[in-house]
Specification:
The structure is a homodimer. The first copy, chain A, is built from 13 helices and 15 strands. In chain A, a hairpin with an 8-residue loop joins strand 14 and strand 15. Helices cover 42% and strands 16% of the residues of chain A. In chain A, the strands form 4 sheets. A 7-stranded mixed sheet of chain A has the order 2-10-9-8-5-3-4, sandwiched between helices. The first copy, chain A, is of the alpha/beta class. The interface between A and B is large, with 56 and 56 residues.
């Protein structure tokens, strides 16, 4: 028997067997009634997960494609925008806006810091306002989940449109598209939505539709896409198999219930952090309940993170993520979004423990897993958990 | 038992069971060795199918995304390009180039006509040359397959770059990327490559790489994509499941052999046309062997093509394609690309025969199917077939 494989990366994430089975169903034509009814159901479920009464546009693309749609539709050359950046995906917003010739003002933090609404407010005042503010909800490169509600309020107070990268957060941590006044929320199929990569998603408020600019675009054009979806059609041949899988996955998520899923992710994050700390490891990502998407962990002195990841993969079939950029050899990241339960966290920590011991690190055996299981348990009423 | 369904559209096309099974395999990380080895094999197979020694860039997108990459990378505002247009997909090139602000000169034909190299040569002389010429190999809306080799030679004689939409032709009819001097060939997974929609492909010559312009782009940027692929990496999270399926499908196609596949498609087209004519139907697409991708057939007087398609679908589970634009109620299209054999053509014609009889048309029973089988048979040596 070939070795079992474990996928503990923050995207792509493991896909439930029901979703994999849906991918293997025969292909249908995208302009027939079978697909239309499936697509209509999928769009309804997306609205429920996004918590919006508005449009969620569906692109055949990665999450970056959905992000580019926001820039291509909103940013005309020379228009001022503000990007809040504290990691690789904040930098992606900046690079995208720069590629479209926007006047990009950045609120920039060290990687791993948590953006502060007051800094955004100050930047907007200093700049004399901006057409749009680009935010990252879950900065997958560092594990930080920003307080998008407060950041959006700061942007709104200067009447900027609010654009959010929620690629790794949607469905894992609370996000209220309409209630928080988020004009554009970009996401993708391959994180908490438990579907293989290939579908980019973007909700677009009426204010954002009204503010589209002059940059060239065709495939990612919002108006063309919206007009198609109004008839349960697609402007271009959609990835019908992935849409079928996404529909099944969204059904699973809504059956669990969004609040239950958010609670599960909080407890998974807690389990991962507490387990890592009990093993004597230092966290890079914040030790707080909001950061429930991915846990970034520094390797002990003398252990190269790249070599640790290779050992995990080659000896134990376990894939965790590395660090971006300068952090490549200093940390590894365990994703716990989507189709995850506490035994996945246990398996990840157990494999890390074995690999660290083999690398010569001092690790007290067994305490990480035990502490993770304890931390995952729901908090009894009245005890609280700060 | 629910009724069986038959997909006879020119994209998406039916997908072999081996490919469907590959889609259902667990998701792997796109930066791990399992995926790298799969991706490397897939890129090699793509080069074989494209018949190129150069790059084939892989995007998570529909075929239109691959087409847009050509326009976004090559067309700067105001630059002159020539588009040869004789149907819906020629118009797509024109709309794409116009969206990027190019100075678009069109060689335009009635839908259903076959472009002539002399017209392109004359247009290029009249315009004083152009940076690029945009061609459609298989015009899926009409069934015409253009002589891209001769058209490319005409473009080359004025030193224009040659850009070809081969979305529905690649793998079905002969196409020689390098030997014909095609600088850019756009295609997609969901036609003759027998994979669900979601992967856009584009080969890019060194001359095309050297000629990239100033239009904004990020997701569809060739250089970023090429740099990633050089390391068997992807600039953005790729559709790993679809790439796995595509790799299996390309293996099936190369096992059959490209020449054998081209011959099969010629005979499938012949069978479909001869069967339709034997039934007394008039062809809209050219009655010639080169047009081996899709057969467009006019409905008899008094029979609405839209109603015929509904009847085929609702009564027999058979999906054929309609006409684009003004042709919507006048014709239907039977695709015969990819995972098709003669019994698919037989089933399509048999269903059309039943539906036409029910619609009150005069059809001699059984002759269409019999003639299709006869026309599909390989031509005995020495008999020839003009």
């Amino acid at each position: 028997m070939s070795a079992k494989r474990y996928l503990f990366t923050p995207g792509p994430t493991p896909v439930p067997p029901e979703v994999l089975a849906a991918l293997a169903e025969p292909v249908v034509h995208h302009r027939g009634p079978d697909y239309r009814s499936l697509f209509g159901e999928c769009l309804e479920r997306l609205r429920a997960v996004y918590r919006t009464a508005g449009d969620v546009l569906v692109f055949t693309s990665s999450g970056t494609g959905a992000m580019e749609s926001a820039v291509a539709n909103l940013c005309s050359p020379g228009e001022r925008v503000v990007v809040v950046s504290a990691g690789a995906f904040g930098e992606r917003w900046r690079n995208l806006a720069a590629a479209y010739g926007a006047d990009v003002q950045a609120v920039e933090y060290e990687w791993g810091e948590t953006p502060r609404p007051d800094d955004l407010r100050a930047k907007l005042e200093e700049a004399g306002g901006a057409k749009a503010v680009f935010l990252t909800h879950s900065e997958t490169s560092t594990g930080v989940v920003a307080d998008v509600q407060a950041l959006a309020a700061a942007a709104k107070s200067s009447r900027a449109l609010v654009v959010v990268d929620a690629v790794s957060s949607l469905g894992a941590v609370p996000l209220e598209t309409d209630a928080w006044g988020l004009d554009v929320v970009a996401s993708g199929s391959q994180k908490a939505l438990m579907t293989p990569p290939g579908i980019g998603l973007v909700s677009v408020s009426e204010a954002a539709h009204a503010a589209v600019g002059s940059s060239p675009r065709f495939y990612f054009d919002w108006e063309r896409t919206r007009a198609g979806q109004a008839k349960l059609d697609s402007a271009f041949t959609p990835a019908v198999s992935l849409v079928r899988g996404l529909d099944v996955a969204l059904g699973l998520l809504l059956d669990e219930g969004l609040e239950a899923a958010f609670d599960r992710h909080v407890r998974l994050g807690r389990a991962c952090r507490e387990g890592a700390k009990a093993m004597g490891l230092e966290l890079f990502s914040p030790d707080e309940d909001r950061s429930a998407v991915v846990t970034a962990i520094l390797t002990p002195a003398g252990v190269d993170a790249g070599e640790l990841r290779l050992a995990l993969r080659d000896r134990y079939g376990v894939t965790v993520a590395g660090g971006h950029g300068d952090l490549k050899n200093r940390l590894f990241r365990i994703g716990h979004i989507g189709y995850y339960d506490v035994f996945d966290v246990v398996a990840a920590l157990a494999a890390v423990e074995l690999a660290l011991v083999e690398a010569g690190a001092e690790v007290e055996r067994g305490v990480g897993v035990a502490r993770a299981l304890e931390a995952f348990a729901p908090v009894p009423a009245g005890r609280g958990n700060a």
